[in-house]
Amino acid sequence: MEILQDKNLAKYLFEKYTTNPKNWNFIISTSSLNDGFFDATVSNTDEVWQLKIDSIYKPLPIVIGTKVDLDSTKIEKRISSSALTFGYRKLEPPVIMNILRNLTEEQHMNALKESGANDYLNSILGSLETVTPVSGKNYVYGPVVFTKGNPVNSNGYQKQVAEKLAFKLRDNLRNKYSSYG
Q1: Which one of 90, 92, 135, 177 is least enclosed by Cβ atoms within 10 Å?
Q2: Confidence class of residue 153 from pLDDT cuts 50, 70 and 90?
Q3: Pair 178, 61: CB distance under 8 Å
Q4: C-alpha dist (Å) from residue 120 to 1, 82, 92, 116
């Protein structure tokens, strides 16, 4: 089992994404191991990656992960059929201004409820194709689906992988921060 970390993991996944930006999913959840970390699953039609993240509350978390032998259609079944796939979507300045104008107008009228705002944004983002980002352009990326339970921790093998990743992440944190438990 090859474990990639931080920049190497990000580079690998980004290169895979750029070859085919369609049908990606990004799911994050609290860990079923109660290890204080977060579990994440990144998948496309070709492969599934199981990740451990030290925190979702800091700008540069420590992330490690490994490719797992899991059918990506099982991941897709756990996500609502109305959910958008993960990816970069190009936003032209007029689209950005239209979003901001509409949300601001609705907010001033107090007519827009949270679900209405979500539906509005989902309809706009859903109409935009996922693309390979190019430097100098405006993009939005996501969505990241946050769930209670991670779909890859469904059997003994994936739980063992989660434990190995948690051990490796804890070890990395101890090496990086000498006072870490």
Answers
A1: 135
A2: low
A3: no
A4: 42, 13, 17, 6
Q: Which of 119 and 164 is assigned the larger pLDDT?
A: 164
Structural domain boundaries in the chain: 3-83+139-176, 92-127
Helices and strands (H, E) in the chain, number of each type: 5, 9
- Strands in 38-43's sheet, in edge-to-edge order, are 3-5, 63-68, 48-53, 38-43, 25-30, 145-147
Decide if pLDDT at 112 tops 70: no
Measure the CA–CA gap between 37 and 62, rounded to whole angstroms.
10
Q: Residue 117 has which token pair? A: 């705002």
In residues, how long is the chain? Answer: 181
- Tell me: the pLDDT tens digits for 44-84? 999 999 999 999 999 999 999 999 988 887 766 666 666 78
| Residues 53, 18: Cα–Cα separation, whole Å | 23
